[in-house]
Design a protein that fits this description.
Mean pLDDT: 91
Strand order of the largest sheet: 1-2-3-5-7-10
Number of helices: 13
Number of domains: 1
Low-confidence stretches: none
Structural class: alpha/beta
CATH architecture: Alpha-Beta Complex
CATH topology: 2-enoyl-CoA Hydratase, Chain A, domain 1
Helix content: 40-55%
Order of helices and strands: EEHEEHHHEEHEEHHHEHEHHHH
Number of strands: 10
CATH class: Alpha Beta
Shape: globular
Distance between the termini: 42 Å
Length: about 260
């Protein structure tokens, strides 16, 4: 196993969970996902923790989604991929803050909007990658975007894979606050301290009430229903390889 991909620390009631792969723009692979899930569960079960903060190392990226070198060579992993972090964020009835310190792309973007509060540095960039790189995004990862920013904007974000500034996402309602990078830690701490002053039982009932509105249909269920042969046809490899080779993908053979 590589060195740890996720760092964990607790300070004054706040658990900070940091994806630590800066050379990969904090993209995840299987090890990263396992460690991220374990850290969220650890903080959820720790009575000394009142608030969780998710972030990434450095100033370039919060999380740039899946590591495409891993995705291009791990068919079995992709067939059974179930990113549990979103459901763990919801089932943790403590407030979870996304500290977005750079690119929040693909899974990084939806991790940010599954958190209860999203605070971004001014230079942060948000957006999806699935349709651009041949990744069959599906299920609650996609549908929850409509709960956050509305159906028309969610469809634009997911279907066109455009890039959006932090200020743009503040206007859309995906982000709660935008500050200069130099002020990001202070702003996150201010929100943490406000939340820690609140009744934890009231926060639990509020969060569960909002969670009850979220459809948790798994990605795999939707893919099996709509595109059951997706990972056997080569479509996802065309997208991943085109990205790695810095060329435009040609998806025309798969239109039907």
């Amino acid at each position: 196993m590589d060195k740890p991909h996720v760092l964990y620390r607790v300070d004054r009631g706040v658990a900070t969970i940091t994806i630590d792969r800066p050379a990969k723009y904090n993209a995840f692979n299987g090890q990263t996902l396992d460690e991220l899930d374990a850290a969220i569960v650890r903080a959820t079960n720790d009575p000394a923790v009142g608030v969780l903060v998710l972030t990434g190392t450095g100033e370039k990226a919060f999380c740039s989604g899946g590591d495409l070198e891993w995705a291009a060579g791990s068919l079995d992993d992709l067939l059974n991929l179930d990113i549990r972090s979103h459901r763990l964020i919801l089932s943790c009835l403590k407030p979870v803050i996304a500290r977005v310190n750079g690119f929040a792309i693909g899974s990084g973007n939806h991790l940010a909007y599954f958190c209860d509060i999203t605070i971004a540095a001014e230079h942060a960039i948000f957006g999806q990658n699935g349709a651009r790189v041949g990744s069959a995004a599906a299920g609650h990862y996609v549908s929850h975007a409509a709960n956050i920013i509305g159906h028309k904007r969610a469809r634009e974000m997911w279907m066109l894979c455009r890039r959006y500034s932090a200020r743009h996402m503040l206007d859309w309602g995906l982000v709660n606050a935008v500050v200069p990078m130099a002020e990001l830690d202070a702003e996150v701490d201010r929100w943490c301290q406000e939340l820690l002053a609140m009744s934890p039982s009231a926060l639990r009932t509020i969060k569960q009430s909002l969670n009850d509105l979220v459809d948790l249909t798994p990605q795999k269920e939707v893919i099996e229903r709509v595109a059951p042969d997706f990972y056997q046809t080569g479509e996802h490899l065309e997208g991943a390889n085109a990205f790695l080779e810095k060329r435009k993908p040609d998806f025309s053979p798969w239109r039907r």
